[in-house]
């Protein structure tokens, strides 16, 4: 049980909480903190935010436990849309934003699998 609270895991956990809080703040602010440059920028922001959250969460729980990280990220994405729909008067939760958020999570999962396969192939090449 001593391996659970290493400084690295504490740091990654703190950064994960910070990223989640930053996403929540940005998504519930009355005035969006990022200036709008094009029409679909909101979807890109959702994609990038939840993709980054997924990567940090997977670093926190470990790449082998990516499913736990994905479950947490998906719950956060759904929760954010619920908060926007019911608790923030100046915002509205909608399905396209949720799809963009879930796409960011899915892209991060794909990236994790790609990196893991590259590491495995390099290790196999070194052993051969």
Could you explain the architecture of this structure?
Helix content is 76%, strand content 0%. With 128 residues, the chain is an all-alpha fold.
How does the SSE layout of this entry go?
Blueprint: H1 7-28, H2 41-61, H3 66-86, H4 95-127
Helix pairs in contact: 1-2, 1-3, 2-3, 2-4, 3-4
Helicity range of the residues?
over 70%
Question: Count the helices. How many?
Answer: 4
The helix-strand sequence is HHHH
Q: Major sheet, described briefly?
A: none
Please tell me how large the radius of gyration is: 17 Å
Unreliable spans are: none
Q: Rough shape?
A: elongated
Average pLDDT reading:
89
Structural class: mainly alpha
Secondary structure tally: strands: 0
Question: Beta-sheet strand percentage?
Answer: under 5%
Q: Could you tell me how far the N terminus lies from the C terminus, measured between alpha carbons in angstroms?
A: 36 Å
Provide a quick synopsis of the model.
By secondary structure, this protein is mainly alpha-helical. Helices cover 76% and strands 0% of the residues. The protein is built from four helices and no strands.
Task: For this entry, give a set of tags.
mainly alpha; 0% strand; elongated; 128 residues; 4 helices
């Amino acid at each position: 049980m001593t391996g659970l609270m290493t400084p690295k895991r504490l740091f990654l956990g703190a950064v994960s909480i910070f990223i989640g809080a930053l996403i929540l703040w940005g998504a519930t602010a009355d005035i969006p903190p990022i200036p709008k440059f094009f029409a679909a920028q909101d979807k890109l922001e959702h994609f990038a935010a939840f993709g980054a959250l997924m990567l940090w969460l997977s670093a926190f729980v470990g790449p082998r436990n990516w499913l736990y990280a994905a479950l947490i990220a998906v719950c956060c994405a759904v929760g954010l849309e619920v908060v926007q729909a019911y608790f923030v008067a100046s915002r509205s939760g909608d399905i396209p934003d949720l799809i963009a958020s879930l796409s960011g999570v899915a892209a991060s999962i794909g990236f994790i699998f790609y990196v893991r396969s590259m590491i495995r192939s390099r290790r196999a090449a070194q052993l051969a």
